[in-house]
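Study the following:
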Amino acid sequence: MSEDSVIIRRAIPADAEALAVFGERTFREAFGPDNRPEDVDAYVRATYSAERQGAEITDPDRTVFVGEIGGSLAAFAQLRVNGSVPVCVTGPAPIELLRFYVDRSWQGRGVAHTLMNDVVAAARARGAQTLWLGVWERNSRAIAFYGKHGFHDVGCVPFRLGGDDQTDRVMTRAV
């Protein structure tokens, strides 16, 4: 990281608009080149509106984090309890890491590591014992990152991106 350290904090409703823009941009950067534009467009329309981000920030079943460097968004993550847990997640007291994105300019500079540490601590504070996530089977960089942070592949689940049926690998780790 630079002379400015990343600050990880809980998102607040006032973050919704910026988080919607950031989430859409980072999703498009990560998945746009390998998917049909209409599928990516459909997904981001449904997922990254300011209204939806505001609702997710205030949802008691979710914990939304933002990472800031120098006052600008550099990363975000989201934990979710009470969602549908795949049968391949067999550990006790599961919590889902639903989203985890780092701005491309900050990748490989320690931001993701700091964010993951805070996510794990928050999962533990919520009483979770198992952290699980779904990651696109073709996202080898993310799979490698999660592996370095103690996650293990335990199965797969379908993921629908617009009109395209895809496969996510399910990874878990103890909290």
Notes: Strands lie at 7-10, 62-69, 72-80, 94-102, 130-136, 152-161, 164-174. The two ends are 26 Å apart (CA to CA). The helical segments are 16-31, 37-47, 50-58, 111-125, 140-148. The mean pLDDT is 94.
